[in-house]
Design brief:
The protein is of the alpha/beta class. Helix content is 27%, strand content 16%.
Length: 299
């Protein structure tokens, strides 16, 4: 027996109308196929928000060359959430030898090329084009690992924080369930996204010197670009501190910086009722290979 489409989260205007919705609170843009399974972030984060009473729609693997794909559910009331998916998008495209991959285990039928390179940045650019000043929150593996200046293997260069390149308002790193709830509640209460500065597990953009007192200030983008050795010093200090302190990274000549709040408390302390049960099934008719591998996973 098939699963009724009404049990999935909406992916288009027709799904919204069947639920009697005229708008969604959040749109989650993902570089992976929509699989309603706890091992796929594009199901877990929206289901967490749904449990809190928010209306969430999912745009899975939109055609980044077509703006209409981003407008299928209209403008979200509170924010757009953006993730490249369960894997860094460059790794989805290329092998370690920098050869193009022939498949993508997170896409329907394993088909490659369903997401752009540097998907987080591309999706944010399209979201800005579609909704202008909408709050943009990025997260996932790609955003988490690129939150500061970093060496990019694919271009053999040092790149700025993805928060700067994407022009997003907030970056959620690590497990995003708890930070997303706090951000959603703040936005729903009318707090401007520019004033959300104290949520653990997040980074934000600010002006030079706009970091909290007592922050450990990391080498600037210019310093790291000219000499990669300074970037190793703060990296070595971070694990020993247990993520309990604030850091700030000077992003570039425009005077931007990216303060990082301490990481959030472990997810194993989360109440099991904080997430609505997933359906353990893909929305797409052609199943991603990773779903076939994990469909027997218990949660």
């Amino acid at each position: 027996m098939g699963i009724g489409r009404d049990r999935y989260l909406p992916v288009n205007r027709q799904d919204m109308e069947r639920r009697g919705w005229d708008e969604v609170d959040f749109i989650f843009i993902s570089g992976d196929a929509y699989v309603d399974h706890p091992s796929f972030a594009n199901a877990v984060i929206p289901r967490v928000l749904e449990k809190r009473g928010y209306r969430v729609g999912i745009i899975a693997q939109p055609d980044w060359r077509n703006l209409d794909d981003f407008l299928v559910m209209g403008r979200p009331r509170l924010a757009a959430l953006v993730s490249a998916g369960n894997l860094d998008s460059m790794l989805s495209h290329f092998t370690a030898a920098k050869r193009p991959r022939s498949d993508d285990p997170y896409s329907p039928g394993g088909k490659a090329g369903r997401k752009p390179q540097r998907a987080t940045v591309v999706y944010c650019n399209r979201a800005r084009e579609a909704w202008k000043d909408i709050p943009l929150i990025i997260g996932g593996v790609e955003a988490s690992l690129r939150r500061f200046a970093h060496y990019d293997y694919w271009s053999d260069s040092v790149r700025r924080s993805i928060l700067v390149d994407s022009k997003a308002d907030l970056l959620v790193f690590g497990m995003g369930e708890r930070p997303v709830i706090e951000i959603a509640d703040a936005l729903s209460a009318g707090t401007p996204v520019q004033e959300i500065r104290d949520v653990r597990g997040t980074c934000y953009r600010s002006k030079e010197g706009g970091w909290p007192s007592g922050s450990a200030v990391l080498p600037s983008f210019a310093d790291v670009s000219n000499d990669r050795r300074p970037s190793r010093k703060p990296s070595a200090a971070i694990p020993g501190a247990g993520g309990s302190f604030r850091e700030a990274y000077r992003a570039g000549p425009q005077g931007a910086c990216c303060p990082k709040n301490p990481r959030h408390r472990p997810l194993d302390q989360m109440d099991g009722h904080d997430i609505r049960p997933c359906l353990l099934h893909p929305r797409a008719p052609s199943h991603p290979p990773l779903y076939e591998l994990r469909r027997s996973t218990r949660h």
